[in-house]
């Protein structure tokens, strides 16, 4: 019996196609079939405590109220990946929460749609404060980057400023910070400047020489830069560091789980995310509905009760207990000792350059860090 | 020196028959080339064009910016150094361990194979956390050293040492398996013959055994070196503040500066540097790229005849020194092999032991040793449809793409080794490309190309790039084995009237089985362990297991991903156990039957 090579190749091709289609067929049946007549809306799942809070306060009640499925996607929401998707005409999500400094990139890339405020409750838009709602983006929640420490190693009365964070004689142990290659994201530039004694009102424009001199002083005690929001707490728990910068919700979440960590509001850096609706979103209409629902006072208050991030709708504070409000980044006492991150400066063009301040900062950081 | 001429010389009449028909063996290259061009070259090329494009038209600005940046060159230098050192460690350890494996009883081999494959059973992220728990001050190593009185252990993590340890752990199997697949096919009779003629064991090994494995060693070295260039997570978690490697630099360019063109330019430059290195090392790396057959399988001719007497003397002197050195090594061979296995197994398995212990932790964070134990994270995994769904999705996708890779790659390897000689180098380079190109760059190019066609979030969208990523393994491992296979066997079969399919079934497949299996294993693992391609291609619906693990531990460090490792490990161990039980059963039945027949 003889077969020509062509027959063999044909058979091989047929088998591989068959396998591929068989595998695809089986997978599709797993993933589809969840949609109902009301349709769906695809949002990124930020995971962790933030994901749970959003699900509890926003997504579950919205599903119950409208019958629209909120599909939580645990894929990557790296800005560059999302932008590539929008550019290719296939955004991975219908709506997205983006950091204040990253928002400009979405605007530059014409990647976001105007928000349909006609669907909002009367007057809700005016209640968005302290940062106002824009035509194409609305603040989602406020978070703070705080100095945090291990109470097991440094006791309850720990750091009171970033200068303390730098002071390893008084507060012994190793440190970790967010990488400055995130630009504004990890607030490391502001932190290093304040540690060098720069007053909060003089932070911008960032004085790079001061920042890197300050970081040079810390470097012997800096074990690494953390890469994910969960890593600082893990490093504190594991004992590899005694002090770290961390998002306040992460610290509070860890405390709830009995982890011996603490933080201070003093010199915390206030940041915020924006909700945006992506250009080319398949379920844009549902996304507008979800956004209008999320920004109502009650869901906003539910959110702030589930995680210690501040609501964007200031009317939500009327629905919160005084105890709870005191734990949030924008409560009067906390915000008084905080610095609000200046996204306007971060996204502005650097003097004498066609690059933004953030791009210049990242490049200078890379040059410093690679030495 | 070519395969064809040597065949003619040594097989005489046997070679005549296939010559009568036109040689169509190159046809087996067609599917390989089609897949690589359509699914790899085209997407990459479209991205490449972007790196030369600006608002004004053609530009070299992206390249100028990188070439003039000291940051870029520092990252390149660090990356190449780490890659070279980890390749050296991996290949030496891999060689020792593979050799020891071939001398072990079969049953023990199966068990140790699980140890070798153990690193693949869990996410790279949690493995890195495990290394931190082991290596950091106050960790396992420090505590062990304190027991023997060493109170100030060296810094083992958050520096280049940490990066090296993490990298070697991941790449050691990649060095070991190709070498093992060739070694297990070597007939030891020739080594015994050399020994019976008076050569000491180590000398016999060096002169008889080693040459037969050299092409596999080169293939391993090339695979390990190239793979390490794209490492991102390991240096990010285990490195210190100044240890960023090129993949991290590309990621910052891509993610933080949102500059895909600049990222592509960095990737292209990396590619060029690696290619130049390969050209420099061409003579040594040639066999691994299946360009020239230099193993002992084919006799050498030509240049050796011109060597002068003096050089011959020098060579003899060198050989004497080598042989006396080998004698010394030979006497220590058992301790060396045992040490190799102890170090290797410790590197491979320790993080998994930590991960396994974590999976039974009651804590919400990864504390080692855990303060309290429970099975709540197992319950959490088995009751979560999303996790179970992702597990089966990943198993299915990785199997499907690995099968396709092995079939296409197996035929391609045949065409590469037995087919025409001239296109070998370009094809070999093309095949190695998917490994060299940082996965992020390839995924981005592929994603941009296919995103408008509704394949993102489908299984097909994941299988296609995974086939491409599996091909370098399937082709290089099969080709290395094929080069060691005496072509006369095929010709003999053909001269006895066997058709192509019979030759394939009765000669090639049995001889290449170990290579095809390890090719499958690596193609499978390339897909099963991938996070980067999945980042782009998963979409909201088809979230693969490694991506789910990656996101989960990135967002909330918990023992949940540790559970996945233990479940997969259990399944792997069960599969191995099942094989032994089956083999035992078959043997028992056979014995029983033969007894009955005898009585």
Automatic annotation (TrEMBL), chain A:
CDD domains: PBP2_polyamine_RpCGA009. One of its GO terms (molecular function) is thiamine binding. GO terms for cellular component: outer membrane-bounded periplasmic space. It comes from the Bacteria. InterPro entries: SBP (IPR006059). Keywords: Periplasm, Signal, Transport. One of its GO terms (biological process) is thiamine transport. Residues 1-22 form the signal peptide. It comes from Sinosporangium siamense. This is ABC transporter substrate-binding protein. Its main location: periplasm. It is found in: Periplasm.
UniProtKB/TrEMBL annotation, chain B:
Residues 76-281, 391-590 form the ABC transmembrane type-1 domain. Gene3D superfamilies: MetI-like (1.10.3720.10). The keyword Magnesium does not apply. It comes from the Bacteria. Its main location: membrane. It is a multi-pass membrane protein. GO terms for cellular component: plasma membrane. GO terms for biological process: transmembrane transport. The chain crosses the membrane at residues 26-49, 80-99, 111-136, 156-180, 216-233, 263-286, 334-360, 392-417, 429-451, 463-482, 562-586. It is found in: Cell membrane. Keywords: ATP-binding, Cell membrane, Membrane, Nucleotide-binding, Transmembrane, Transmembrane helix, Transport. GO terms for molecular function: ATP binding. SUPFAM superfamilies: MetI-like (SSF161098). CDD domains: TM_PBP2. Signal peptide: none annotated. The keyword Secreted does not apply. PANTHER family: ABC TRANSPORTER PERMEASE PROTEIN, INNER MEMBRANE ABC TRANSPORTER PERMEASE PROTEIN YDCU-RELATED-RELATED. Belongs to the binding-protein-dependent transport system permease family. CysTW subfamily. This is Spermidine/putrescine ABC transporter ATP-binding protein. It comes from Sinosporangium siamense. The lineage of its organism: Bacteria, Bacillati, Actinomycetota, Actinomycetes, Streptosporangiales.
